Amino acid sequence: MTQSTEPPMVELKGVKKRFGDLEVLKGIDLRVDRGKIISIIGPSGSGKSTLLRSINNLEVIDEGSILLDGVQVNRPDLKGLAFERHINHIRQNMGMVFQHFNLFPHLSTLENVTLAPRKLKGMKASNARELGMELLERVGLADKAQSYPSSLSGGQKQRVAIARALAMQPKVMLFDEATSALDPELVEEVNRVMKGLAEEHMTMLIVTHEMAFARDVSDWAMFMDGGVVVEANTPDHLFSHPDQERTQHFLRKHLGAQA
Amino acid sequence: MEFDFSPVIEYLPTLLQGVGVTLLIGLAVAVMSVIGGQIVAVISLYTRKVVNWPLRFFIWLFMTTPLLLQLYFLYFGLGELILIPAIVVGILGLGFHYMAYNADIFIATIRSVSSGQYEASRSLGFGHLNTLFYVILPQAFYRALPQLSNNMIIMVKDISVLSAIGIGEMVYVSQYAISVTFRPFEFYITIAVIYYLINLMMEAGQTRIERRAAYRR
C-alpha cells in the first residue's frame, strides 16, 4: 500500500489470538491508510471476523499490537477501570456494524441513532435529533424515525445500524458480514449506503462474502485462510489473477456458487 | 336463608377504608418489589460470590417458605427484639417476598438479552454499567412485564394474609364488621366482588402495558 507520513488509520502488527488450543489469528500484519477501503474475504473459520472484532477489542488479542490513528488499542499494561476508560474512548472513534444488526429493540429508530451521542458526548437533545435525522436521511430512512426496529426489514435495520455507528463520527468503520443475514434482494440497499460512505472517503474494513461488491468498492483486498493472510493485493489482481492456489480454489468455489 | 345487604351498606365506609389500605399496601409493595427485584437480580448476576451468594440464599429462603410464616417471623419473632409497627412489617414482609419472586424473573430476562446487544453497546463506547442501564435492563424489563404483572395480581390477593398480624385491610375490616353484624355471607360476597373488580382493573392495565411493550421487545 502507499506509504504516507501520517500514521496509518489502522495498523496491526503481529496480531495473534487463541481460543483455547486453537490459534485463530497467527500473526497478522495490516496497514490501512486514511480514506482507504480494505475488503477481507475467506472461508468460514478463516479468522476474518475475529480479526475485525479484535480491532474493536470485542476479542482480546494474545500477542501483537493494534493501533488506531497512532493510538494503541490493546493495552495489556492497563487493568480494570483504567483499561475500561481507555477502550470506551477508543471505541467512540470506531463504528462497528454487525451481521445481525443488533439494533436496540426498546428504542425507536431515531433513539437508536442518538443514544450514543446524547449519553457519551453529552449532546443536547435537539442537536442529537438534528444529527439523527440527518443520518437517517443519508441512509434513506428519515420516514422511519419513529418506528421501532421490530417493524423494519432486515435491510432497513442494517441501514439504521450504519447510521447509529456513524452518529459518533468515527474515524473508521468496521463491517462484519453486514449483508450476510439479508435476503438477496435486500443486499443492494445496504451496499448502496456503504458505497456512499466510500465516496465520502470513510476508512473502512469490510469482512464480506459479496465478491462483486468487494471488488467494486475496495482499494485493497485480502484473502484469509487458517488464521493467516494468504494473499493481499489490489482487488482487480486478487479477484482476476490470484497468485496463490488457495485463493484460486476459494474464488473458483465461491464465484462458481454465486454464478 | 335470606340475604340482607343493609349491614354491608351501613359498614361501607369501614369496608372502603379497608380497600384503601389494601390498595396503598399493594402500591408500596409493587414499587418496592419491582425496583428491589431488579437490584437483587443485577447484584446476583454481576458481582462476586461473596456478595451474590447471600442474595441467592435470600431469594431461595423467601421462595421456599410460606408468606404467613415469614410475616409471623418478622412481626412476632423480630418483635421480641425490636418493636416495628404492623403496617411496616406487612409492607416489608410482602415486599421481600415478592422481591424474591421478581428478582427470579429479572435474572431470567436479563440473561435472555442477547450478547449481541451487549457488544453493540460496548462497540459504541458505552461502559459496562452504562450498557446495563441503557440497553440491557430496559429490554429485560419489557420482557419481564407479563410475568411481573401476574405476580402483582397474585400479590394483591396475598395482602389479605396481613390480617393475621392485625392490619386493617379488606378481609380484616370485614371480619370486624361480621363480628358485629353476624352477616358473614353478605360481607364475604361483597369483599369477593371488590377483589374481582380490582383484578379486572389490573388486568386491563396489564393488557394496555403489554400492548405498548410488545413491539419494544
Automatic annotation (TrEMBL), chain B:
<keyword id="KW-0029">Amino-acid transport</keyword>
<dbReference type="GO" id="GO:0043190">
    <property type="term" value="C:ATP-binding cassette (ABC) transporter complex"/>
</dbReference>
<feature type="transmembrane region" description="Helical">
    <location>
        <begin position="81"/>
        <end position="101"/>
    </location>
</feature>
<dbReference type="InterPro" id="IPR010065">
    <property type="entry name" value="AA_ABC_transptr_permease_3TM"/>
</dbReference>
<protein>
    <submittedName>
        <fullName>Amino acid ABC transporter permease</fullName>
    </submittedName>
</protein>
<dbReference type="Pfam" id="PF00528">
    <property type="entry name" value="BPD_transp_1"/>
</dbReference>
<keyword id="KW-0812">Transmembrane</keyword>
<feature type="domain" description="ABC transmembrane type-1">
    <location>
        <begin position="19"/>
        <end position="206"/>
    </location>
</feature>
<dbReference type="GO" id="GO:0006865">
    <property type="term" value="P:amino acid transport"/>
</dbReference>
<dbReference type="GO" id="GO:0022857">
    <property type="term" value="F:transmembrane transporter activity"/>
</dbReference>
<keyword id="KW-1003">Cell membrane</keyword>
<keyword id="KW-1133">Transmembrane helix</keyword>
<dbReference type="InterPro" id="IPR043429">
    <property type="entry name" value="ArtM/GltK/GlnP/TcyL/YhdX-like"/>
</dbReference>
<feature type="transmembrane region" description="Helical">
    <location>
        <begin position="185"/>
        <end position="202"/>
    </location>
</feature>
<keyword id="KW-0813">Transport</keyword>
<dbReference type="InterPro" id="IPR035906">
    <property type="entry name" value="MetI-like_sf"/>
</dbReference>
<dbReference type="InterPro" id="IPR000515">
    <property type="entry name" value="MetI-like"/>
</dbReference>
<keyword id="KW-0472">Membrane</keyword>
<feature type="transmembrane region" description="Helical">
    <location>
        <begin position="57"/>
        <end position="75"/>
    </location>
</feature>
<comment type="similarity">
    <text>Belongs to the binding-protein-dependent transport system permease family. HisMQ subfamily.</text>
</comment>
<feature type="transmembrane region" description="Helical">
    <location>
        <begin position="20"/>
        <end position="45"/>
    </location>
</feature>
